[in-house]
Amino acid sequence: MSFSFLQCKTTCGPTLAAIVLHFTLLAAFGPAAPSSASPGPKAAKLAPVSEATPRLVIDMQRQVIDVRLTDIVLREYAFTILDDGGMTGGFTENLSSPPSEMPIVESVYLISGAETIPEAELRIIAEETGLGADHIQRFLPGKMVLVTSEGMRIYIETECPTAKTFRWQWIKDVFGRVWCALTGGNSLHLSLSAEDAMSLYGVARSRPPVTVKQ
Amino acid sequence: MRVLSCLLFSVAVVAVTLLIVRRPMMTTAVDTIQPSEVLYNGRITAFGGANGDSDTTGRRSQARHLKGPYIVIDRYCNKLFLRTEDSILLEALCSTGSGGELVDAPTGRRWQFDTPPGVFTVDAKLTNPWWRKPDWAFIEEGIPVPKNDAERLDDQMMGEYAIGFGDGFFIHGTIYERLLGVAVTHGCVRLGTADLKKLYDHTRIGTSVYVF
Q1: How many CA atoms, within 13 angstroms, populate the side-chain half-sphere of residue A213?
Q2: Confidence of residue A56 (pLDDT cuts 50, 70, 90)
Q3: Residue B12 belongs to what domain range?
């Protein structure tokens, strides 16, 4: 009995450790966590629009992105078109009657950004309030990408001078651009102010519906 | 000796009893508290203070959205706007809910400190508001929750004005103005003194509040 137990211990132990290590590595370096970029289930590609859901309206004529809630304009982000990607309007905007379903922002990520709260100050605030630094810190985007459930990629660039590149997100973006080019996906390149881009990043994280108004 | 021991024991019992049931001195301000009509349960409880000004008539018409300027609260940027469709009347740095969670281990009670997203209306406007601290404010500091209501009252924390927008959430002042622009609150929205005054003067009961 004891011999069998010992035998089991010497073989099962390393195997179990390997399995645990495998899943740990997968969790640490696997696909992006939902908090930053959340590819939802395929069934959630289109979102029912409700009065409580803010939505993004990209107005190509006025060159403004509106954040709207129940048709009220909450914020407006003026933009400059860097490259319209030959867009011919994959989306149509219907303001007269609420559409039942719209594509959503499926993921958003920063390729580069600058912290708005310096590290030293963040530590003090975190200690005083007992909150995690992640909860408190905000980023001024240098470059960011919104990816919609219809496969449209919206690249945003700002004037933020102190933005640092996030290596993994940059690599992810390179693959994304290649894939978009190969599959003929629509893309749009815009320039926004860093402050507006920061607000847009915050809205986009809630995966709002998005439309383009030609 | 035995008699002395009994006497000392009796004195000790009486002293302990008095300590437990002791009532603090009531101040004039506490005596002028308006009763439950302006008391909100939950996250913040605020009511008219010594000056007594308050307007809660809007509570009876919470669903009514007035036309005109409306308030927008951007939680990610920690900014508050008073605006119309065409123009921005006030842009202010604020502090919104931290998103943190507090758990009281002995009882298992939990609190989530978010400023809720959605569409609201202003349903109260208060001047010189007092804060009746809820249980979490003591639990967070590791202080025993007082049994006496008077020990919960604070007349400094909320500043000079408070604007309620539903379910115990307020836009109010703060003694921590250096933290404006950072999401550190327990759900309410804090504004600086000057911006709060401007907002209070241009807001009515029924003004729409949009939080995203």
Answers
A1: 15
A2: very high
A3: 2-211
- Residue B25's pLDDT is what? 36
**Strand partners for A75:** A67
Q: Are B163 and B69 in contact, with CB atoms under 8 Å apart?
A: no
Q: Are B185 and B98 in contact (CB under 8 A)?
A: yes
Asked if B82 contacts B127 with a C-beta cutoff of 8 angstroms, the reply is no
Q: What is the mean pLDDT of residues A123-133?
A: 84
Express each pLDDT in B6-19 by its tens digit. Answer: 778 777 776 666 65
Please compute the mean of the pLDDT values over residues A26-32 and round it to a whole number.
Answer: 46
What is the identity of the amino acid at A66? D
Complex ipTM value: 0.71
State whether residue B177 sits within 8 Å of chain A by CB: no
Which pLDDT does position A164 carry in this prediction? 83
Strands B54-55, B124-127: pairing kind: antiparallel
> Which residue blocks in chain A are alpha helix, DSSP H?
2-29, 119-129, 133-136, 167-183, 194-204
Across A2-11, average pLDDT: 47
* Number of other residues whose CB lies within 10 A of the CB of residue B176: 15
Nearest Cα to Cα of residue B180 among B162, B192, B170, B196: B192
**Partner residue facing A54 (CB), from B70, B140, B212:** B212
Q: What is the pLDDT of residues B82-105, one digit of tens each?
A: 999 999 999 999 999 988 888 888
Q: Would you say residue A68 has pLDDT above 60?
A: yes
In Å, the largest CA–CA distance within chain A is 81
CATH number of the domain encompassing residue B77: 2.40.440.10
Sign of the Cα torsion B63, A75, A180, A40 reads: negative
State both tokens at B187. Answer: 């759900």
**How many domains does the structure of chain B reveal?**
1
Alpha carbons B196 and B192: distance in angstroms, whole number: 6
Half-sphere exposure of B87 (CA within 13 A, CB side): 2
Whether residue B76 and residue A202 make contact (CB cut-off 8 A), yes or no, is yes
Q: Which residues of B touch A51 (CB under 8 A)?
A: 119
pLDDT category at A194 given cuts 50, 70, 90 is very high
Chain A interface, mutation test: which of B67, B86, B94, B184, most A Cβ atoms within 10 Å? B184
Residue B21 has φ and ψ, to the nearest 5°, of: -95, 10
Percent composition of chain A: helix, strand, coil (DSSP 3-state, to 5): 35, 30, 35
| Whether the predicted pLDDT of A108 surpasses 70 | yes
